[in-house]
TrEMBL record:
GO terms for molecular function: hydrolase activity. InterPro entries: AB_hydrolase_fold, DUF915_hydro-like. It comes from Limosilactobacillus reuteri. The keyword Hydrolase applies. Gene3D superfamilies: alpha/beta hydrolase. This is Cell surface hydrolase. Keywords: Hydrolase. It comes from the Bacteria.
Length: 130
């Protein structure tokens, strides 16, 4: 059976979003901060559910690349960087490796990240080592 070896996350909203129209279960808690391990000081219902199953993540098997954007306000314009960085708490302790790539500037905007040359190069290097 195939096994996950590499995982790339781009602009993930793991700890929630700040939109008023989203359900409370996925809203990012107001004033949320992360500790050194990426653990949020407050968690929404969805993130709490993910913490309950994090021990099922394959141990020592998966290399993780977490790509986040910062347009200058600790956000990619849609997702707060703290929400994206909270992936660390969910997977880093069991991952083979965990690395964050922060893209900055106007091309770091949420919907532009998938068309960003810096992101493309990082993906190619990470996935295929070229």
């Amino acid at each position: 059976m195939p096994q996950l070896q590499k995982q790339v996350d781009i602009a993930g909203h793991f700890a929630g979003l700040n939109f008023k129209q989203v359900p409370a279960a996925i809203q990012q808690p107001v004033g949320m901060k992360l500790n050194k391990d990426g653990k949020p000081n407050e968690m929404n219902a969805t993130y709490r559910q993910m913490t309950e199953v994090r021990q099922t993540y394959p141990k020592g098997q998966v290399a993780v690349l977490n790509i986040i954007g910062d347009v200058g306000n600790h956000s990619d314009g849609t997702v707060d960087n703290a929400s994206s960085l909270s992936l660390k708490y969910l997977v880093a302790a069991r991952a083979k490796s965990y690395r964050v790539l922060k893209i900055t500037g106007k091309d770091a905007q949420h919907s532009k990240l998938h068309n960003n040359a810096q992101v493309d190069k990082a993906l190619i290097n990470f996935l295929w080592g070229k």
